[in-house]
Design goal:
Elements: H1 2-10, E1 15-19, H2 25-34, E2 38-42, H3 46-53, H4 64-72, E3 76-79, E4 90-93, H5 108-120, E5 126-129, H6 137-146, E6 158-161, E7 180-184, H7 187-197, E8 204-207, H8 210-241, H9 245-252, H10 276-284, H11 292-302, H12 304-318, E9 327-331, H13 346-356, E10 360-364, H14 390-395, E11 398-401, H15 410-416, E12 420-422, E13 437-439
Parallel strand pairs: 1-2, 1-4, 2-3, 4-5, 5-6, 7-8, 9-10, 9-11, 11-12, 12-13
Antiparallel strand pairs: 6-7
Length: 440
């Protein structure tokens, strides 16, 4: 009964299960243990579970010290045994929701997790999906699988959606302080989910349904996607007009109302913005509703790596060097500065496009010393970061700045490089060697 579950949650006797111990799941585990809850973490990756059990973190902004404290407190354990899903009172799902090669939603991880939960599901459990997806996923995809258990939602178990809002590397907001939107299948599901998150999160924002919560997350990321596409398109236009788009954005941002600054780049990265708008446009087809605005924004952003490579090729040609056999150093593998998160990073596509055009490519990233195996770029696995030294920089025909890590000494880089292609305006404060810099 709902009263029994709420009583367990409110007296901090409820066990929380987190499925998926990556950039979303592990920070969530941290906050629940800090709130005094006992947490069981589930992951299919045995290496992650072994690492956590040994008190070692594999995520840069979650120090190993934090993991050791969680383990030693007795509040956290990690496992690959999904049969133990019967133990938690609240199960939070934080698994990937990528796109297929045809840019359609790939819910394989969500569906597999739902099947694992269905095998172990018992009465009075709460199941919450956090993975970003299109409106309707919780009820249309998750619910039918969960009810194969023979249990009924709202009566035997409870179901909700609460979108993750992780932004690795931020210091002004944390998992705990970012408000948590929660939508329940019914009133009891909403009450249980809100009570659960109040253990770990400062502000819980209830909405009327799972669909409203799913749509809120899609709106947040589509908003960013569309505005980034706008400045990316303006970057290309202003470049032809001989105008510095970065100067224009700085000037426009002095207006105290009616304008929010967004910045161009080499392409979109991270798990949300490059993917979520395509989830929405795919779902819109079911309602015979074209989303031309969203799809156009996606096209602009997807085209940015090609634009950067073209600018690099032209810059090399201007210096009497062909792209074929040119030595190029890509600075930054992470999708944004000062993190080790390389999910959907445009740097991967830049490296591959350079190689396809005959360039000999190396990379540097102090946060990603070795390229891990990925489904999308398996051929790059094992590639190691090249140290930034004066001697190494001089060996390259071009240095392409894809990620503007704070640790990069841009003056040093420009001084010793033969050519710098800057996609982030990272060299804005470098006064000498301007003839070496090309904005892209």
């Amino acid at each position: 009964m709902i009263q029994q579950l709420l009583r367990k949650i409110e007296t901090n006797k409820a066990v929380v299960g987190v499925v998926g111990l990556g950039y979303v799941g592990l920070p969530l585990v941290r906050e629940f243990t800090r709130g005094g809850a006992k947490v069981i973490g589930f992951d299919v990756d045995e290496r992650k579970v072994k690492s956590l059990t040994a008190g070692k973190s594999y995520i840069e902004h979650i120090p190993s010290k934090v993991v050791r404290e969680m383990i030693q407190s007795g509040l956290f354990s990690a496992t690959t045994d999904f049969k133990q899903l019967r133990k938690p009172d609240c199960i939070l799902i934080c698994v990937p929701t990528p796109l297929s090669k045809m840019r359609e939603p790939d819910l394989a991880y969500v569906e597999a997790t739902a099947r694992s939960i269905a095998k172990a599901l018992r009465k009075d459990q709460l199941v919450v999906l956090e993975s970003t997806t299109y409106p309707g996923t919780t009820k249309e995809v998750m619910l039918p699988i969960l009810e194969t258990s023979g249990l009924k939602v709202g009566k035997d178990f409870y179901l909700a959606f609460s979108p993750e809002r992780e932004d690795p590397g931020r210091e002004d907001y944390t998992t705990k302080t970012i408000p948590k939107v929660v939508g329940g299948y019914d009133a009891n599901s909403l009450a249980a989910a809100c009570a659960c998150y109040k253990i770990a999160i400062d502000t819980v924002v209830p909405v009327s349904s799972c669909e409203a919560a799913e749509a809120a997350k899609i709106l947040e990321n589509t908003y960013r996607c569309v505005n980034i596409a706008l400045v990316n398109e303006l970057k290309m236009l202003f470049d032809r007009m001989g105008i510095d788009v970065w100067e224009v954005i700085r000037a426009a941002a002095t207006k105290p109302f009616g304008f929010t600054a967004f910045y161009p780049g080499p392409g979109l990265g991270g798990h949300c913005i490059p993917i979520d708008p395509f989830y929405l446009s795919w779902k819109a087809r079911e309602y015979n509703m074209p989303t031309r605005f969203i799809e156009l924004a996606g096209e602009v952003n997807v085209s940015m790596p090609e634009y950067v490579i073209h600018k690099t090729m032209v810059a090399l040609n201007d210096r009497g060097k062909a792209m074929k056999n040119a030595k190029v150093l890509v600075l930054g593998l992470a999708y944004k500065k000062d993190v080790d998160d390389d999910r959907e990073s445009p740097s991967y596509e830049l490296i591959e496009l350079l190689q396809e055009n005959g360039a000999k490519v190396s990379y540097n990233d102090p946060h990603c010393p070795v390229i891990k195996h990925t489904r999308e770029h398996p051929q790059l696995a094992g590639m190691k970061s090249t140290p930034i030294t004066a001697g190494n920089l001089k060996k390259f025909d071009a240095v392409l700045i894809s990620t503007d890590h704070t640790s990069y000494d841009q003056k040093f880089i420009v001084k010793h490089a033969n050519l710098v292609v800057d996609t982030r305006n990272a060299t804005k404060n470098v006064r000498s060697g301007r003839n070496k810099i090309v904005k892209a």
